[in-house]
């Protein structure tokens, strides 16, 4: 990618100095929350609150203007009323600031003329400088190593995922929800109206970093679609890009226009081109995390043949349906595997072929783990889908569920093939979900969601085998 | 329905006396668990354990045989090895027992000749008597008022839902999971191989009871499809029938054959005929409960025009997409409503048209409830979909989520139109789900699942308006 663009983005995501304009002594003002979030992250560089009305904010010396700051500034966060933005952006441009984040809303997304005019003024104020801009109408950037947060309540992680979101609150919800699945981020950008830096710039920046494991995206509009497709295509089969596209329908497009000033355009053609470029398209936040979880936790895929293991027979049948409906295959177990399963399982109320139905076998300790290991040892099995849901023996007693969870975790220690778990949701299941993800077993609430995620995971790895090894 | 069949079913679901054959002093034997579950339910009639080896079990006098029992028996639960079943069924037939449940597995579902022969022997033993049989290979019946349970851990409820399941464990999982959504059952049957009584008999029995609110079903095979369709058609638009069909795919059909000896058949034609008959078809357990929740909690539907209210703008767009993808419409809010919303909401970062985007407005107390009430007052709005997910202000701090939940509950007190909530799942959300369901607001994890459920709910009520008032 363009050298200068990369340098700007490096300074935005890994700033040595950050100015925050729009701070006040009101704890809840957006500027104050942003300053607080930098302190919470443990930001290690120079921090400059800017507001001519104060000498000091949160124990830090406060400066009257960008131009009055004592040193260079990598990142300026501007949380001031819209009419004040162009002037401050001009100050940043003149002061040699690398990047600014304009958090404020009230620009082209309002549909009003003054909003569009203000955006033109901002662009005018940047002209001739090296300043790059994130937003307006965004939450800005999160950087785990750079110690920058886009929202209160975030903290540094060891993650290697990146995210681009045209909705800031969706980005922060994803950050928190992903934690429960053992997914953590290195960098996140809430890109808002994308007046200057756009989703393609961020995608290229993330994908060119060999340490990035996966890129998640929520996008309502892809302004520079041709370039976006080219960038995605180069990562095809190498780094997964999982995209939740907003504005798929006429109603969604209208909503996107007032949310981030997205222009719409023919989504059918775009969707086809994105698929061709290897982008994984998902429908909602649940599916976004389902797919990310499979790609993160599972080893590279071998093939599409799935073995189902279940204690409730009805869910075994449901899982077999879900496997085929997601375009996957049910393995035909080898006769020797069926024989082994016959020895492990009670003779009645069970099935030793795929889907393997443990019946009440799951009640006896050790049976579930032995079945998983026997199935995994079969060369005709590529992936194992283990249904963990079981009737609790007493109202709310998670005894059997916990026992099955532990047997899955135990088997996982010896099974190298990809394995996912299905637990029907319930408030009493949170423990099982956390435990399984911590053991590297992605867990899903239904066979349908598990198989949808597996199909994407397998699709990605099939591209991986097909893609040339050089870029 | 047939008078005599109804009488038999009444005696099975509301027995005055129950015999349990196959009890032992092992606490964990299936027969003992079944006896224990009757005691746990507080069964009020005569209870006869049967086993020639004991004088007494669980403090009850134990009898050597069905024929030795001192009084009439309405229901006999047989949990004995397969070869002993035909003889016991013959005893029941001669003793004038109304119905027996054969829990034991090991019959035609094994695919082995001896299993099929045993089933033929059972039928032979019943011949010429009035005895009716549930199963074999099933868990039997749950009856809240009859104080009979099909599994340990069940208890009487005040529910008016019924369920027919060809998987016993799925029935018991549904019973427990439904509780979290405020859904409780009056009667459930796990019908197994359906050697005698089949799903159509149970469907007709449930649908002819004017107190039954809804029938849920998990079926792998509908043996008597023509009669089933006729029975369902008579309830079309009156009592919802929500069906999760197992064995939709080739792999699922094979699995169903070894689970309950289901024969398969062309599911495409059957699915079309079921839809025509007004049956609501769902794909998995999650959707089954999603739909049941909408039908149970919401008032009869007016129309398909949905207003979306959301604080995260990205989820507002996603919800607008989900509305149209589910075949629903987005309401066009009246200018006066938009004006009212403009007064309630901050000017920037929000949208006063549908989908209504509260932006950071949701942070201020009272705003969410006022927006819900303003939207509900608009005559162009039929249904309200409220997205409650919001970025938590601190890791795991549910403060804002709880506040939004309470505002939804408060608004619900004044809003008569159907309203559903969408919360992205997470272990910290269980509280919100329980609270909302207890207030009659069905809650869903994604706009997609909410809209799918709403589409079924609206479809049912549109049939209701179209159906003639007499049967």
Question: What do these coordinates show?
Answer:
The structure is a homodimer. Chain A is of the alpha/beta class and about 475 residues long. Chain A has three domains: about 1-135, Rossmann fold, CATH 3.40.50.720; about 155-295, Succinyl-CoA synthetase domains (Rossmann fold, 3-Layer(aba) Sandwich); about 300-465, 3-Layer(aba) Sandwich (Rossmann fold), CATH 3.40.50.261. Chain A contains 16 helices and 19 strands. Chain A has helices at about 5-15, 30-40, 85-95, 115-125, 170-180, 200-205, 225-235, 250-260, 265-275, 285-295, 315-325, 335-345, 365-375, 400-410, 430-440, 445-465, and strands at about 15-20, 45-50, 55, 60, 75-80, 100, 130-135, 140-145, 160-165, 185-190, 215-220, 240-245, 280, 305-310, 330, 355, 385, 420, 445. A six-stranded mixed sheet of chain A has the order 8-10-9-11-12-13, sandwiched between helices. In chain A, strands 14, 15, 16, 17, 18 and 19 form a six-stranded parallel sheet that branches. In chain A, α7 packs parallel to α9, α10 crosses α16 (about 445-465) and α14 (about 400-410) packs parallel to α15. The first copy, chain A, is elongated, with a radius of gyration of 25 Å. The two termini of chain A are about 15 Å apart. The mean pLDDT of chain A is about 90.
Biggest beta sheet attributes of chain A: 6 strands, mixed
Shape of chain A: elongated
Helix content class of chain A: 40-55%
- Tally of domains of chain A: 3
Count, helices of chain A? 16
Find the CATH topology of the largest domain in chain A.
Answer: Rossmann fold
- Contiguous low-pLDDT stretches of chain A (5 residues minimum) are none
Radius of gyration of chain A: 25 Å
Approximate strand percentage of chain A: 15-25%
**Fourth CATH level, the homologous superfamily of the largest domain in chain A:** Succinyl-CoA synthetase domains
**At the first level of CATH, what is the class of the largest domain in chain A?**
Alpha Beta
Beta-strand segment tally of chain A: 19
Oligomer: homodimer
What structural class should be given to the helix and strand makeup of chain A?
alpha/beta
Q: Please name the CATH architecture of the largest domain in chain A.
A: 3-Layer(aba) Sandwich
User: Which chains share the greatest interface?
Assistant: A-B, 89 and 90 residues
Strand order within the widest sheet of chain A?
8-10-9-11-12-13
Q: What is the mean predicted local confidence, pLDDT of chain A? A: 88
Cα end-to-end separation of chain A: 13 Å
